[in-house]
């Protein structure tokens, strides 16, 4: 019996909040080697890809907009 996939945890609390919302909405989220998290929407659209450690001032606004464009109600 296979274990269910686990939600990736982001070190940044703002990103983790959105990843958790996406995971609970049925999205598939994957932690990549290069410190990126990709969240795939259930409708087959392209994934939302974000770096786990932000380096810009508008990071959260851009993150929120990316998830909204992909169809997540945030």
Query: Major sheet: order of its strands?
Result: 1-2-3
CATH topology: Metal Transport, Frataxin, Chain A
Mean pLDDT: 88
CATH architecture: 2-Layer Sandwich
Q: How many alpha or pi helices?
A: 2
Task: Look at the structure and give the CATH class.
Answer: Alpha Beta
Biggest sheet record: 3 strands, antiparallel
General form: globular
Rg (C-alpha, Å): 12 Å
Estimated structural class: alpha+beta
Number of strands: 3
Task: Give keywords.
single chain; 74 residues; alpha+beta; Metal Transport, Frataxin, Chain A; 3-stranded antiparallel β-sheet; globular
Describe the structure.
The structure is a single chain. With 74 residues, this protein is an alpha+beta fold. It contains 2 helices and 3 strands, in the order αβββα. A 3-stranded antiparallel beta sheet has the order 1-2-3, with helices on one face. A hairpin with a 4-residue loop joins strand 1 and strand 2 (36-40). The radius of gyration is 12 Å and the shape is globular. The mean pLDDT is 88.
Layout of strands and helices, then pairs:
Elements: H1 13-24, E1 28-31, E2 36-40, E3 48-51, H2 59-69
Antiparallel strand pairs: 1-2, 2-3
Summarize the structure.
The chain is an alpha+beta fold.
